[in-house]
Amino acid sequence: QEQTITGPVGAPDVPICVFRPEDNPGPLPTLIWIHGGGYVMGSVAQDELKIRELSKEAECAVIAVEYRLAPEYPFPSAIEDCYAALKWASENADGIEIDKSRIAVGGASAGGGLAAGLVLLARDRQEVAVQFQALIYPMIDDGNVLPADEDHPDTLIWSRENNLIGWRSYLGCEPGEKKVSIYATPYRAENLAGLPPAIILMGDLDLFLNENIVYARRLIEAGVQTEMHVYPGAYHGFNGFAPDADVSKRCNADLVSALLRAFNHS
Questions:
Q1: 61-65 and 28-34 strand pairing
Q2: Which of these, 35, 100, 134, 191, has the minimum number of CB atoms within 10 Å of its CB?
Q3: d(CA 6, CA 87)
Q4: What are the catalytic residues?
Q5: Is 157 exposed, middle or buried (0-12, 13-18, 19+ CB in 10 A)?
């Protein structure tokens, strides 16, 4: 079901798409899903098959957010659109037959970065409780924009130059500057305590490998229950580009399994 919801104060309404498994009336646990695209491209449509499978396999509703893209709409446009969807889901839970005590957020790449920022924002605003965060090779460190060289080789699909363009567009300034919000670059957050349990999935050929490993370790050190998987031979976006590969099937199954455990409190 496609619809629009009230956007952030002074901003346009936010398009969303609500997916529900057939013959499961609810109230259902819910995943707020945020698509990837380096903060500058992408749409809900690109993830529709993945979302449908997630909804069916994880036995949950999925609310996918069509957030505003940079550079036309730099931070905080995208994350405020995602927060509007999160808050709408909680406030309208009865009407859309979802269980507001079982709301997770998740996304891949820039969507994973937005999901990581969103749980920080939800923790600090204290308006909506988030049960779980699913971060698939999240884009979270604006400092990871060094030019490619022998010590910093380029990676498949998402290069260092692409990363620089994405961050510059989203932040509206040069990446790595000191005064950048933690909700834009979660890697910079000094306090990760009080965040919901997390799963972080990544390939060992991904540009985001190191930042994701460091972030997972810091979540654990902050007392956040965290599961991490590194898939050998996997590049950025591998489970989308090659969904039938064994490594992709394992990644997607790990995500579904984590969501089922979170939603069922096991």
A1: parallel
A2: 191
A3: 10
A4: 109, 206, 236
A5: middle
